[in-house]
Design goal:
This protein is an alpha/beta fold and 245 residues long. Helix content is 36%, strand content 20%.
């Protein structure tokens, strides 16, 4: 058995994440579903998502629609209450250095775009679609491995622009000093947020009920730490309908 909730994971949030998981785990037990006592934090994403022993994890919309759909079950999508987004949706912020004099993406044709991974909806697919549909281009690309690193690369001058998902951007502003040297230049259109998934053999409705109840049972401190306002059901078709460039 394996479970992981590491997509939005800062050390300062570990206590709240662990308490949420403990409540989910105990509710799963009551439904007769075995679950690990603790979350995995250090395992790479893909071995967790593709594990035959997966109980619960959170993935990204692009991996879900491109590789995981049909191999895992969609549990639901956390709603982070983001401004200008429907419940359960998110969007990407194009961030640049605060003192960069450029005021539009059209001025970044010779810039370096820093992205976390090409299998990221928010860090790669959404910004590339945003640029492509507007006939815009970026001069060069640099892979960082994570949104937090992308933010630091831009803030410290090793890149010029990055696309950060709106939830991560809120946490970066909360926990990362580099945020003081960044500003939002533009936003992508909202797309379905990061879905919770489970393995193909488990009873998904029972898992959904356990997760929903645990999220609704969060105390005010943990709710604010995690920014989770609830669990919503977004149809799989909404993930497949997201336009790729």
């Amino acid at each position: 058995m394996i479970a992981s909730l590491s997509m939005y994971d800062w050390p300062q949030m570990r206590g709240a994440i662990d308490r949420l998981w403990a409540d989910i785990r105990d509710r799963l037990y009551k439904h007769g579903i075995s679950a690990p006592s603790a979350l995995e934090y250090d395992d790479p994403f893909w071995p967790v998502w593709e594990s035959p022993d997966l109980v619960l994890s959170q993935t990204c919309g692009l991996p879900f629609r491109e590789k995981l759909a049909g191999r895992v079950q969609l549990v639901g999508t956390p709603n982070y209450g983001l401004r200008d987004c429907p419940p359960g949706y998110y969007r990407s912020a194009f961030v640049v250095r605060r003192r960069d004099p450029r005021t539009a993406l059209s001025e970044f044709s010779d810039a370096c775009f820093v992205y976390n991974d090409q299998m990221s909806q928010s860090g790669w697919a959404a910004p590339m679609a945003h640029l492509g549909t507007r006939g815009l281009s970026i001069g060069s690309m640099a892979k960082s491995g994570s949104h937090a690193v992308s933010a630091r690369e831009v803030a410290e001058g090793r890149g010029d622009v990055a696309a950060l998902d709106a939830v991560t951007w809120e946490f970066i502003k909360r926990y990362e000093d580099c945020a003081d040297n960044l500003r939002v230049l533009d936003w992508t259109e909202p797309t379905p947020g990061l879905p919770l998934i489970t393995g193909p053999e488990l009873e998904v409705e029972s898992i959904r009920r356990a997760v929903d109840a645990a999220i609704r049972g969060l105390d005010l401190h943990d709710r604010r730490q995690l920014r989770i306002e609830g669990l919503v059901t977004i149809p799989e078709q909404a993930y497949f309908a997201v336009e790729d460039l």
